[in-house]
Input
Amino acid sequence: MTKTKRALQTLLTLAMLLAATRAGAQTVNLARPAASGEEHGRLYRAFMIGLNLGELPWQGSFKLGVTLGYHINEHAYVGVMYQIPDHIKRDGSSINAGAVGLAGLSSSSESVGHRLLVETRLRPHRYAPYVTLGVVLNAADTETISFDDRTRDIAGQSYSGRITIKQTRPLGIRPAIGLGYGYTFDFGLSLNVQWSGWVFAKAPAPEIEIDSPTLDAKARRFLEQRITDKFQKSPFNLYHVFALGVGYVF
Output
C-alpha cells in the first residue's frame, strides 16, 4: 500500500512540475503565435501517460496499473491500459463467499491475474462522459474460501467439519464496451474513472475444487451447482477492467 501511495504521489508531483514548466515557457513566449494544437484545445493530438487503480483502495487492494494513450482530438482517444496481478484479502467482503450460502466463513482471499484493455473512447464534447469500445483480456482469477468446523445442512442432510472451496475464473478475451468520465485540467493533469467489459453474456462458469473430509458426492454436486449459478449471475465476475486513474496529457 505504501509503495502504491508513493507511486501516486510521484506521478502527481511530476504532473505539477511539468505543468509549471509549461506555464513558465508560455510566460516567456507570450508573443509567440499559438501552435495548431493550442488553437484546437488541450486534447488535440496529445499523448497521455498515467497510473490507475483497478480496485477501490479501502478494501486493502489496489490492482495498480499503467495507462498509455493518444487523444486524436476532444472527441476521440485510443489507448492501452494494463493492471498487474494482485492478492486480495477479502474475508467478509467477498461477494462470492456470500454466494456459497454456508455459515461459518473463516477466511477468503483472491489471487487476481493481470488485466489488459485496448480501447477507443468516444464522446460528443470535452466535458461529456465517454463510451469506450475495445478488447479486454483477463488472466485467471482464483479465490480460496474457507469455512470453519461446524455442522451444516447441505442438500437436506447434515454434514460436520471444515470446508474449503477454491473457484477459478479461467483466462478470457472478450470484446468490451463501457462508460467512463475524464477531466483534463488546462495544465495537463488528467483524472478519470471507467468500467469496460463484455456485458452481452453471463460470466463464465468457474472451475471448482471442494476440500472436505465429510462431504459426499451428492453434497459436492449441490454446492458446485449453486456456486456456478451464483457466480455466473454476478456482474463482478464478467471479463472487465475497472480503473480509477490519474495521468498527464502532453
Notes: The chain has four helices and 13 strands. The chain has one domain: 2-239. The CA atoms of residues 76 and 122 lie 5 Å apart.
